[in-house]
Write a structure and sequence with these properties.
Blueprint: H1 2-10, H2 15-31, H3 35-53, H4 60-94, E1 98-108, E2 115-125, E3 130-131, E4 138-143, E5 153-157, E6 161-162, H5 175-182, E7 185-190, E8 197-201, H6 207-222, H7 225-234, H8 246-253, H9 264-280, H10 285-301, H11 307-324, H12 331-345, H13 353-378
Parallel strand pairs: 4-7
Antiparallel strand pairs: 1-2, 1-5, 2-3, 2-4, 5-8, 6-7
Helix pairs in contact: 2-4, 2-12, 3-4, 9-10, 9-11, 10-11, 11-12, 12-13
């Protein structure tokens, strides 16, 4: 068993990079080092790495240490950059006169402001600046504009924006701030006057968002409320079932609440069905997996995502790319690539419980599967 685990560890060349990425994010989150120090450290290690790589008799341990250190400073710099960018965008939003954006989510709520919107900010206008964020930053809007739908492009004039709290109102910890930073939520808007919101276009110019909006609208019209809630929650990943609903309470009573949430298992079932169907046709393996990769990509673009769905989604796309190009792929290696990419793009994911559980369990299952396969081959 130990020999097979050691063999699995040796076949993961990016494992030191993942360890350095995690350590760099935690260190930067604790110390808040200046970006000049991080840049100097990264350049120093890069120069040292070039000298080591020129030596043909260099040790593998030196490669691992250099890789770990490089990704340590790279992840710390990414954490610092993301923190500074979110703080700067929150300052712009607090002083804005006009905000334009596209509605990513539209749900009905209880109370006076019975419409909750998740707005993808396209443009922020202040007295001195006109900012167009390149990243997907969001505002959570509560209003009474029942005519607004998913995919609409709107403009808010002189919004009253409440900044997100630094601590959770219940636990008094910084986990709430980390969650808002992970989701790129810049603040909350409570629009008591519907006249402050103006619709610019009925539908977004994004083709996938148009199809998603049309699909969601047609399903609501043609399906009963209970069927639509199950279909949207399980197949599309949309959180339509309220916490206090009888259906959720019934599933919670029997310990089956996790079946109402879409996860990586649904991606595996979706791809398995298409692999089985396309295996009937006499198509080349490369073309077959390219078709499946295209279908999985469209499925992800037309649905609401979560971290477990993104993990399975990108792992399978890399697996299909390897099959199409006749390259050998291993699940632990693909998981490592996806984890490093997600952490470098959004370092706040590391402090999220769903990210931790999703990747830890995926790594454990893939390692166990590789170990059992290794023992089977030995016999």
């Amino acid at each position: 068993m130990l020999k097979s685990l050691k063999n699995n560890y040796r076949s993961l060349p990016l494992l030191p990079a993942l360890a350095g990425t995690i350590a760099g994010i935690i260190w930067q989150h604790t110390t808040c080092a200046h970006w000049l120090f991080l840049l100097a450290g990264f350049c120093s290690v890069a120069i040292f790495a070039i000298k080591i790589l020129r030596q043909s008799n260099s040790d593998h341990l030196a490669y691992k240490l250099i890789t770990t250190t490089l990704f340590f400073f790279l992840a710390a710099a990414s954490k610092q950059l993301n923190t500074a960018r979110i703080t700067k965008m929150q300052t712009y939003v607090a002083n804005t006169n006009k905000i334009e954006g596209t509605i990513l989510e539209a749900t009905e709520t209880q109370g006076y402001l019975n419409k909750k919107l998740a707005l993808h900010i396209k443009c922020i206008t202040t007295k001195k600046n006109h900012i167009k964020p390149w990243r997907q930053y969001k505002l959570i809007i509560f209003c009474r504009c029942h005519w607004l739908e998913l995919g609409d492009t709107i403009k808010i004039i002189n919004p009253e924006i409440s900044p997100p709290p630094k601590q959770s109102p219940f636990t008094k910890s910084n986990s709430w701030n980390n969650y808002l930073s992970k989701e790129n939520i810049l603040g909350y808007v409570f629009c008591k006057n519907p006249r402050t919101i103006k619709r610019l276009w009925n539908k977004s110019k994004n083709i996938f968002l148009k199809i998603k909006s049309s699909l969601d609208t047609e399903m609501q019209k043609k399906l009963s409320p209970s069927t639509y809630n199950l279909f949207a929650s399980i197949f599309l990943g949309k959180k339509t079932i309220a916490v206090g609903s009888k259906l959720r309470e019934f599933f919670a009573y029997w310990g089956l609440s996790h079946y109402l949430a879409r996860s990586g298992l649904h991606v595996a079932l979706f791809t398995s069905i298409w692999i089985m169907l396309l295996s009937i046709a006499t198509l080349p393996i490369a073309l077959r997996y390219l078709i499946i990769a295209l279908l999985v990509f469209m499925y992800g673009a037309l649905s609401w995502t979560s971290i477990s769905f993104l993990r399975a989604h990108w792992v399978f796309l890399l697996f299909a790319l390897g099959k199409a190009t006749t390259h050998q792929t291993r699940t632990p290696h693909l998981l490592t690539i996806v984890a490093i990419t997600l952490l470098l793009y959004s370092p706040f994911q590391l402090f999220s419980l769903d990210f931790q559980l999703s990747f830890v369990l995926a790594f454990a299952l893939s390692t166990l599967g590789s170990t059992l396969l290794w023992h089977k081959k030995k016999k």
